[in-house]
Amino acid sequence: MIDPHAPAPPHAAPPWCPPVRLPVRPATGRLLVLAGVFVCAACGLVYELELVALASYLMGDSVTQASVVLSVMVFAMGVGSLAAKRLRRLAAAGFGAVEVVLALVGGCSAPALYAAFAWTGGWGGPWAGAPRCLLVAFSLTIGLLIGAEVPLLMELIQRIRRQDAGGAVADLFAADYVGALLGGLAFPFLLLPHLGQLTSALLTGAVNVVAGGALVLGLFRRDLTPRARRLLLAAGLVVLALLASAAALAGDFERAARHAVYGPDVRVALRGAGHEVVLTGGTRGRPLGLFLDGRPHADGRDARRRQEALVHPAMNGPHARVLLLGGGDGLAAREVLRFPGVRRVDVVDPDPVLVRLARRDPALARLNGHALDDPRVHTVVADVFGRLRRTPPAAYDVIVADLPDPGLTASTKLYAQEFYGLARRGLARDGRLVVYAGPVTAHPRVFWTVEATIRAAGLRTAPYRVTAPHRVAARAPGGLGRAGPGRAGAPRDWGFVLAARARPEPRLDPHGPRPRTLTPAALAADVAAAARTRVPGLRPSTLIHPRYGP
């Protein structure tokens, strides 16, 4: 006699999910469902990586952005899995609807975030929080939809042929994880370098809706009512049409957004070694602007003053052998070559695009005085840290580190104690090191952390700053923005740290042929101004314990 209160055996189907009628054999049906899981998992991971990459590019500090995106998405996936329990009775229709919405939201996430950044004033003005709020909203929505996929797919695969829960979960997760592997590798090595961020997201959305639609309307069409089939087909075609139209207009959209960020004078925009290189102006009397990942790197009106402040103090001493870390734009090399007695200048920059522009772009080459074509200059495209590790002891009289801001996560290792220890080893006994350490007024803690880190590496320091008379008219991460009401401009100053191995402390006394923008008196005033911003008690930054932040 069967006990009516006994639990159902593990292979029994609940009363609301009878076996589905398939157009293929059950074994083939299971294989097709697992293929759908594979494709959907790949698309889901591409959405995650796309949000992390775009947020890091627009906001900087990739560790923070990755933590926000991934933590919000994982939380939302759990909520989505719980919410999907209500759709189990209509698993096929529910999964089709989830895929249509996920394709639309995920595919449009990158264009929407870029548009919010470009047309809401970046991180300044009354809409400063709009891009960040949008990032969290997309992470939450995409996470909810991805989380809803697995329970619905589990329900569908069990309707084809009932099996023990452990075996079904193992099959489903195996396909899911392998698909995630494919998506994780395809994004950095295929999609991003060849299609860019916007088109990659749109293409991923198209693949997502096609895969989900083919699975539901092809394999489980008999599990849907005629009205449900028509609605899902129409919705899928509309989403495909929207994504295709957006992909066709991606070039025009990117140009319009770029003009909104940099102004109407954008002349060159290229992808370099992991970042975007943009040149503005430089023709018809308009000043040249050089931007790396949206951040002002050089302004034709201020480049001379900035590079003199960087190079001249370090050249007050032996300077026959000079190493420029960064400096692929050729501007620091131009200043170095103005000093008599320079025999060799080694320029190490990881970005071949920037180096090529410095040689071939007429405006940039004119600004740097064609310095990279000088026979004394030897340019190497290589990782800066790795190149410094291979530098022989006491190989250089002067080392100039003109690198991206230390607050950027990708640059943190180039401002670590280990990095400065390698630089100290590469300096001659009377050699000097000078480091660009970011804006002093805007980020004093970052600046003085750089100074403390250099001292911890065994070097004697002389920190100073130089004011920027002009402001770059472009919005950029970290509080930079187009000059105008409610929008912040470029940093008001540049901070530098001069360091030396031997006693006494290095002196700031720039001497060179025809000094144009700097005088000892002006530098003395800038040293005093920087000293007033000192943040005491800061600890050095290391590779294991980076201490830079916004």
From TrEMBL:
GO BP terms: spermidine biosynthetic process
Gene3D superfamilies xref list: Vaccinia Virus protein VP39 (3.40.50.150)
Annotated residues for binding of spermidine: 329
Entry annotation: catalytic residues: 402
Main location: membrane
Molecular function per GO: spermidine synthase activity; thermospermine synthase activity
SUPFAM superfamilies in the record: MFS general substrate transporter, S-adenosyl-L-methionine-dependent methyltransferases
Pfam families, per database record: Spermine_synth (PF01564)
Catalytic activity line of the entry: S-adenosyl 3-(methylsulfanyl)propylamine + putrescine = S-methyl-5'-thioadenosine + spermidine + H(+)
Topology of this chain in the membrane: Multi-pass membrane protein
Pathway participation: Amine and polyamine biosynthesis; spermidine biosynthesis; spermidine from putrescine: step 1/1
PROSITE patterns recorded: PABS_1, PABS_2
Cellular localisation: Cell membrane
Transmembrane domains' residue ranges: 31-57, 63-83, 90-114, 134-157, 169-192, 198-219, 231-251
Boundaries of every PABS domain copy: 241-485
Residues that bind S-methyl-5'-thioadenosine: 349, 383-384
Function (record text): Catalyzes the irreversible transfer of a propylamine group from the amino donor S-adenosylmethioninamine (decarboxy-AdoMet) to putrescine (1,4-diaminobutane) to yield spermidine.
Subunit description: Homodimer or homotetramer.
NCBIfam families in the record: PRK03612.1
Family: Belongs to the spermidine/spermine synthase family.
Protein name: Polyamine aminopropyltransferase
Organism classification: Bacteria, Bacillati, Actinomycetota, Actinomycetes, Kitasatosporales
